Amino acid sequence: MGKRIGYARVSTDDQNLDLQRDALALTGCNAVYEETMSGKSADRPELGHCLKALRSGDTLVVWRLDRLGRSLPDLVGIVSRLEQEGVGFESINERIETTSAAGKLIFHVFAALAEFERNLIRERTRAGLAAARARGRKGGRKPALEEAQVREIKALLKDPQIQVGTVAKRYGVSRTTLYRYVGKTGPR
Asked: Which part of the chain is the Resolvase/invertase-type recombinase catalytic domain (predicted)?
């Protein structure tokens, strides 16, 4: 039988890891990786160390599901990777574990709900963009320069005494943006 490795996380320094530590100790965790960091942060170094320490046959134990994943899709992704590596997963509060058939079923229902949520968001986004287009709105960023400004800039840059950087500054754009609109005008 493999090791039981715990992962505990709190969002701020004001919060305390004691409750999670105690719960993980009661489940027989051999080691616990602890982190004080927002769950929204993609860079969670202790979680990375924890995941590297897990081997096939081990079980990752968390106090609650929200301690592991930043979102349901993120959680599903992490647990799916664990499953592919032969590592079990257990959440103490929700009483979910993926080492049994029933536990896997419950977790896969969560995964299906996460995919459903992603698809709904995608559909709503498409519908919103289509409605905006129907009202004559164009998506994307407003152009940095108007047609009249581009004509003025081209006329100014015909004078070899005028520097590209000066023109760019005058119109409030970068040299790169200026070149994108008028093309390269030779060395300056």
From this structure: 3-136
Cα–Cα dist 169/134, whole Å: 37
Which residue in the block uniquely carries the two structure tokens 């970068």? 174
Same domain, 43 and 101: yes
Q: If you ran DSSP here, which 8-state letter would residue 183 be given? A: -
pLDDT digits (tens, 9 = 90+) for 71-128: 778 888 899 899 999 999 999 988 888 888 888 888 788 778 777 887 888 899 899 8
Considering the candidates 11, 38, 41, 100, report the single residue annotated as catalytic.
Answer: 11
Known active-site residue 11: yes
State how many domains the chain has: 2
- Mean pLDDT of all residues in 165-183: 90
Q: CB 164: neighbour CB atoms within 10 A? A: 19
Domain that residue 151 falls in: 147-182
The count of other CB atoms within 10 Å of the CB of residue 8 is 25
Residue 35 CA to residue 41 CA, distance in Å, equals 12
Q: Is residue 121 part of a domain?
A: no
**Residue 38 maps to a domain:** yes
The pLDDT tens digits of the residues spanning 22-51 come to 999 999 998 999 998 776 667 789 999 999
d(CA 97, CA 87): 11
On whether residue 135 sits in a domain, the answer given is no
pTM here? 0.60
For 96, list phi and psi in degrees, rounded to 5.
-110, 135
